[in-house]
């Protein structure tokens, strides 16, 4: 069975690069009817926080990337990590190193002075334990092979090699008994039966060392796929100024989860010329070989256009649910059931016009505005004294309407315009200002129908009586 994992460090939010890594692991597992596991790499106790763990879990759930089984804490497995190192000491693939921090610093300085790459020189590799200094707690190091090479057959990067002479004896357990990241990852991946490690290509150098740990334990090595990183629009490494935000920030900017799945998928993976790819299609098509080797660039305009597509595809009732919190935050109160129904009926008019839920919320605020409406600058300029009189006359016609539908109201306005020698726009635009407080909205006759007879007539009466 194919088993993948996502293993974030809980030192901050789930950033967009981590979201894409999780997505690729999830899709690959789903494609093969396998398992997608979650491991929280919380061994850095000083920087790991419960709030960060919660943010990661929430971000994954919002993206729709549900994992199999319980999330695993790496820190809680520290005894197992130490147990494996004890096996390595017993089989001769690890040894105790009694170097003090001062000795290691002096070693590195001497190497730098000689123009060499700073690295551990293996001075305790073959020494007799009887030479151990009293009172010094040892670190445990891997007795790495010095001859030959270590090879990674990577699904994205191809075959990558490094001479073993370039790798030193890495620390497995620190002198205080805590495991290092490189050891913990290997033990956890082995114990979790992970078959494929899919992660950022910034981990590629770690992989050579991790393979040596697998070999030292006689364990089967998983397959690897190292994904190029995401860059900003300018081609530079992604940073906060580019939008390297937490996944929840994109949610709060009004993006839909299906948008983010589609967008993140296309950041470095392709299937022909397809740009809009549903989650079902992505599961069917996804392969590691479809991942490109070049870094991808973040493109907010493309993300917004994709979001506009998915908003048009979304069910109206779902958009009401997703947009309501944005509206309530803006108006400072909860929407009534009547207002939610008003919002639902307005959604079809907004779908072709908005790119984010924020735009949808902002555009619909007029539906819930307190009377008399606060007019924006353009709307206020439009409503001259003459126009207000015209609005009053039109309101009288509306009050006599037999049915309150967009079609019936449009017919009344057309008749009114013709009777007064006006073009339709000269009546419709002031009507829009009177009913919404702005000069931009969905079709105004649909707006009037959604507001209903009582609310519409009251707003028109407010305008007529203003000043």
Task: Sum this structure up briefly.
By secondary structure, the protein is mainly alpha-helical. The chain has 4 domains: 1-73 and 228-313, HUPs (Rossmann fold, 3-Layer(aba) Sandwich), CATH 3.40.50; 77-227, 3-Layer(aba) Sandwich (Rossmann fold), CATH 3.40.50; 315-366, Helicase, Ruva Protein, domain 3 (Orthogonal Bundle); 377-465, Arc Repressor Mutant, subunit A (Orthogonal Bundle).
Features:
467 residues; mainly alpha; Rossmann fold; Helicase, Ruva Protein, domain 3; 3-stranded parallel sheet; 3-stranded antiparallel sheet; 12 strands; 10% strand; elongated
Straight-line distance between termini = 76 Å
Strand content: 5-15%
Task: Please state the CA-atom Rg, rounded to the nearest Å.
Answer: 32 Å
Q: Mind telling me the CATH superfamily name of the largest domain? A: HUPs
Which structural class do you get from the secondary structure elements? Answer: mainly alpha
Described by strand count, sense and barrel closure, the largest sheet is: 3 strands, parallel
CATH architecture of the largest domain: 3-Layer(aba) Sandwich
- The average pLDDT score comes to 92
- CATH top level of the largest domain? Alpha Beta
Total strands: the figure is 12
Helix percent band: 40-55%
Number of domains: 4
Q: List the strand order in the largest sheet.
A: 1-2-3
CATH topology of the largest domain: Rossmann fold
Overall body shape = elongated
The number of helical runs is 19
Low-confidence stretches: none
Family: Belongs to the class-I aminoacyl-tRNA synthetase family. Glutamate--tRNA ligase type 1 subfamily.
Region (Disordered): 115-134
Motif ('KMSKS' region): 237-241
EC number: 6.1.1.17
